[in-house]
Amino acid sequence: MPILVMKFGGTSVADLERIANVAEKVRREVERGYHVIVIVSAMAGKTNELVKWVNETSAFYDAREYDAVVSSGENVTAGLMALRLQEVGVPARSWQGWQVPINTTSQHGSARFVSIPRANIDAKFAEGMKVAVVAGFQGVSPEGRITTLGRGGSDTTAVAFAAAFDAERCDIYTDVDGIYTTDPRITSKARKLEKISYEEMLELASLGAKVLQTRSVELAMRYKVRLRVLSSFDETDETSGTLVCDEEEIMESKVVSGVAHSRDEAKITLFTIEDRPGIAAAIFGPLAEAGVNVDMIVQNISEKDYDEAHAGAVTDMTFSCPVDQVARAKKAMEEAKAAGKINYDELIIDTDVSKVSVVGIGMRSHAGVAAKMFKALSGENINIKVISTSEIKISVLIDRKYMELAVQTLHDAFALDSAV
Ligand code: ASP
Ligand code: MG
């Protein structure tokens, strides 16, 4: 029998009524002839509560016990879902990570998959079980201890099962009905996409379209798992939601597929640094050690590039990072300066910036996207502070107060409200 993976996020299993509602969706797929592997999250808010309890008990907690506690939310949902399915006549059984077993590394709190052997679950399917309900977000380490995958990890569990069991598709049920051309809260012209490529979704996922954990999209791309995002609150059928798939499955796409945004960014400039080999490493090494997620980087041209005679050439370095990491970044730079590893005249920090990006695989073969983007922004008098590009993305840093306007303007400029 073909296998389907269905994943339900926290809001989709927030109470018993919602569990009953999604169990009905599972029952229908069983009736269509599938063996179903259901991956569940903890009930909405549960994981946050468990994390809080751990922190309140122990400030410098033992990560193994953190995992023992925070993995428990999923166990409850898995058992309840199996019970509910049995109530409506579907042979179902729940599985915790260690029972499958879901083998992971022993990096507690951010473990990675090693293997998911099929034998145990397949044996139960052979005995007549129709649905395996598996607790998401967790696994077991080589030492035999419970691990977790990092917040949002049950998306990745779902994709890993789809890959391990050669599933026909991996349906991710959530509280939105698909992937949109941009955030519908910013413009009512946002349009739901029927299909989007893995690469575009990766850019959107990491740019703050928080529908899927980025790792799950990476895994789906690697194993070519067809991923569908759809709402657990709507009536759904084969055509609902958005399919995340290989670009070859997408007949025609626009040059730009979406406009992404990331509201809370900061821009940090090290003014007047030495221009010598090793200076970038001396700056970004300590930032990495301090756990700062540096995003865009711009180094000015050196004075000596236009004035050969200029002795003791200097330059400036600018980078961006999430606003809540600014304090850490500042401390790392001040310490590096105090230790004599770097030198700068001034550290200029701007915490009022946002990042807006246009994303599309069509950019690979079409020129002029950057020009069109910059022209549209200038038409609204929006100043661009930093620009960065990749093969399928152009990002700009702008003042936060213009973020909504920039998204709306770019959505219009690339006519994303229409499918053609
Ligand atoms: N329950 C976990 C979390 O809230 C994992 C997940 O739902 O994906 O992060
Ligand atoms: Mg999630």
Automatic annotation (TrEMBL):
The biological process GO terms on file are: homoserine biosynthetic process; lysine biosynthetic process via diaminopimelate; threonine biosynthetic process
State the PROSITE patterns in the record. Answer: ACT (PS51671), ASPARTOKINASE (PS00324)
A single GO molecular function term of this UniProt record:
ATP binding
SUPFAM superfamilies referenced in this protein's UniProt entry, alphabetically: ACT-like, Carbamate kinase-like
E.C. no: 2.7.2.4
What superkingdom does the record give? Bacteria
Q: Quickly give the catalysed reaction.
A: L-aspartate + ATP = 4-phospho-L-aspartate + ADP
Pathway, per Swiss-Prot/TrEMBL?
A: Amino-acid biosynthesis; L-threonine biosynthesis; L-threonine from L-aspartate: step 1/5; Amino-acid biosynthesis; L-methionine biosynthesis via de novo pathway; L-homoserine from L-aspartate: step 1/3; Amino-acid biosynthesis; L-lysine biosynthesis via DAP pathway; (S)-tetrahydrodipicolinate from L-aspartate: step 1/4
Where do the ACT domain residues begin and end?
Answer: 268-356, 358-420
* Residues noted as binding ATP in the record, renumbered to the chain: K7, F8, G9, G10, T174, D175, Y180, R185, K210, V211
Keywords assigned by UniProt, alphabetized: Amino-acid biosynthesis, ATP-binding, Kinase, Lysine biosynthesis, Nucleotide-binding, Transferase
Give the CC-aspect GO terms. Answer: cytosol
One Pfam family here: AA_kinase
Residues binding substrate, per UniProt: T47, E74
For this chain, the family text in UniProt reads: Belongs to the aspartokinase family.
How is this protein named in the record? Aspartokinase
> Can you name the source organism?
Pararhodobacter aggregans
- Organismal lineage: Bacteria, Pseudomonadati, Pseudomonadota, Alphaproteobacteria, Rhodobacterales
